[in-house]
Design brief:
- The chain is α+β, with helices and mostly antiparallel strands.
- Helices cover 52% and strands 21% of the residues.
- Helix 1 packs antiparallel against helix 2, helix 6 runs parallel beside helix 11 and helix 7 crosses helix 9.
- It starts with a helix and ends with a strand.
- It binds adenosine-5'-diphosphate.
- The site of adenosine-5'-diphosphate has 23 residues, from helix 9 and helix 11.
Length: 407
């Protein structure tokens, strides 16, 4: 284009020179020719410039279009990520103003009736307000645990910097209530189990120490001690076996070997050997077995249920009879063990199925139990999708009722 313009200009000046030569260098003609030449140069350069500007503008507009659709997409992606995060998330700008939050964060407000979230976070729980203030005042990464309405949250503050300057921060809250309660339960279980094991071990150790003394020569006491050691060893064995059993049952889905069985036969088979144990205490086992006893369950585990409930009834009764009763309704089969023993207060009825819980600590321990019998029974019944309940009255007796699905 520049090359063409030069050729045109050269031709114009050559034509002007020839004309001037022809008209013997007429001044007016020269002025007119000069104006025409400069006019042409101005016009062509203006036209070229405006074409270039137009092209540049078009390119710029296209670029803006691409960038804005890119920003739109990125914005959408960010909002999708934020809303799909299953725990509260807040994004603050450099002045501490909330610019992005998800629905879980909005639920932490103390006044949920307000539709709009207060960007200056005044409607949040005071503990969360403190975290937010710390986040933009301290401008550094931090973590801490807070409790809001019975829920324990682990909070994470992550500062965001742009060109080396603080430009806001991200606040994340993770619900750790379950993890903490699991951890607490595990710690309690270990402490309780250690305590249970420690008691018989200390008794055995103490007696062996006395028996080993050089000056010990009391044959009668030695005989008593040996019997006592034998009893404590058996108790230790029972606790260890129950501990193994309860830890197997505590896993999320215990393995059941279900088969079709006649529950009445299972009751008779399990209770017959216990009759002499009852007779030794002047107790009588009585059966009232009704209903369709054809059930689909783990027979070995059910033997343990029957055993634990009937042995408890014998252990905690000093008189009367122990009734073993079954019946059915449309969907369920019921198995009851009813005794006339010591019973317990109504407020103990829920706690009684907790591991190591004992109504009367010393009395129950004297009976030689592990404190895990009913927890094992409940775990087995839960694994069969059944239920177990107890009604008891102090000095009157207890009724344990197991409900199983009829399949
Ligand atoms: P333990 O090995 O101590 O018997 P269990 O888990 O079987 O442990 O029972 C927990 C507690 O419940 C017992 O220590 C006892 O205090 C109470 N208990 C269980 N069964 C009966 C019952 N039939 N009558 C009265 N109290 C009972």
């Amino acid at each position: 284009m520049v090359k063409n313009k030069n050729i045109v200009l050269f031709t114009l000046f050559l034509a002007a020179f020839l004309l001037e030569l022809a008209f013997e260098f007429n001044t007016y003609l020269m002025i007119i020719l000069l104006i025409a030449a400069f006019g042409y140069v101005w016009y062509t350069s203006e036209a070229q410039m405006s074409n270039q500007t137009k092209r540049e503008n078009l390119e710029l507009m296209n670029q803006v279009k691409v960038n804005s659709s890119d920003v739109h997409l990125k914005n959408k992606q960010l909002l999708t990520i934020v809303s799909s995060i299953p725990f509260p998330l807040l994004l603050l700008d450099e002045k501490g103003k909330i610019v992005i939050h998800n629905v879980h964060a909005a639920q932490l407000r103390s006044c949920e009736d307000k539709i709009e979230l207060d960007a200056m976070h005044n409607d949040f729980h005071p503990k969360l307000q403190e975290i937010i203030k710390d986040a933009y005042i301290l401008e550094k990464r931090s973590e801490q645990i807070i409790q809001i309405d019975e829920v324990e949250y682990q909070t994470y503050i992550v500062p965001i910097t742009s060109h080396g300057r603080f430009s806001g921060c991200l606040i994340l809250l993770q619900d750790i209530t379950k993890a903490l309660s699991g951890e607490k339960m595990q710690k309690r279980f270990i402490a309780d189990a250690s305590h249970e094991l420690k008691t018989p071990i200390s008794v055995i150790k103490g007696m062996i120490e006395i028996l080993n003394r050089d000056d010990f020569d009391d044959a009668e006491t030695a005989d008593d001690f040996h019997k006592q050691i034998d009893y404590e060893v058996n108790r230790l064995d029972r606790i260890v076996k129950d501990l193994i059993e309860i830890s197997k049952l505590s896993i999320e889905k215990p393995i059941l070997k279900r088969i079709r069985i006649d529950f009445h036969d299972l009751i008779i088979m399990t209770c017959k050997p216990l009759e002499s144990l009852a007779e030794n205490k002047n107790l009588q086992l009585v059966y009232d077995l009704q209903g369709d006893s054809n059930l689909f369950c783990d027979s070995q585990k059910m033997i343990q249920v029957i055993n634990n409930l009937v042995i408890n009834a014998i252990k905690y009764s000093d008189q009367g009879q122990i009734l073993i009763k079954t019946y059915q309704d449309d969907d369920s089969y019921y198995f009851q063990v009813i005794d006339q023993g010591c019973g317990f207060e109504i407020d103990e009825e829920k706690k009684i199925f907790d591991r190591f819980y004992r109504v009367n600590e010393s009395r129950s321990r004297l009976k030689g139990g592990s404190g895990l019998g009913l927890a094992i029974v409940k775990s087995i019944i839960d694994a069969h999708d059944g239920t177990i309940e107890v009604q008891s009255k102090r000095f009157v007796g207890s009724t344990f009722t197991v409900r199983l699905n009829r399949l």
